[in-house]
Amino acid sequence: MVKCEQCGGRMRHVHRTFFERFGYLAIYECRDCDVEKFYPRRYMHHFGPYCRCPLCGTLRVTRLKARDRIDPPHTGFLNFLERLVGGKLYHCRYCRVQFYDRRMLASEDKTPALEWQEEQAGTPWHAEDSDE
Length: 132
Prior knowledge:
Blueprint: E1 11-14, H1 20-23, E2 24-30, E3 36-40, E4 61-63, H2 77-85, E5 88-92, E6 97-101, H3 112-120
Antiparallel strand pairs: 1-2, 2-3, 4-5, 5-6
């Protein structure tokens, strides 16, 4: 059973449109506050500015210098393409899988936009609109 992150109520499954089926595994809507929760398909983790685990989608991955003989490598066509393009070797500590990716780690990127987002993460969204 999926619970709402905002109010803690039960969420119900929402029927996806034809085009939403290509991008999302499931869409849930809260019965109380009408908040929607989207669960993307695994191939969507290969898009975006930062390296993500291809299985769980976490940003908390580490770079490896050489293949680890204990944890298995991730197999698949997209991982093969990432390796051919010159992607670096990464490791997910949660899934214990090794994979190749061409993008940088989220922890390495310190652009002004990212710093501003980190500063604003602790403030309410309406705080920047006030004139005080």
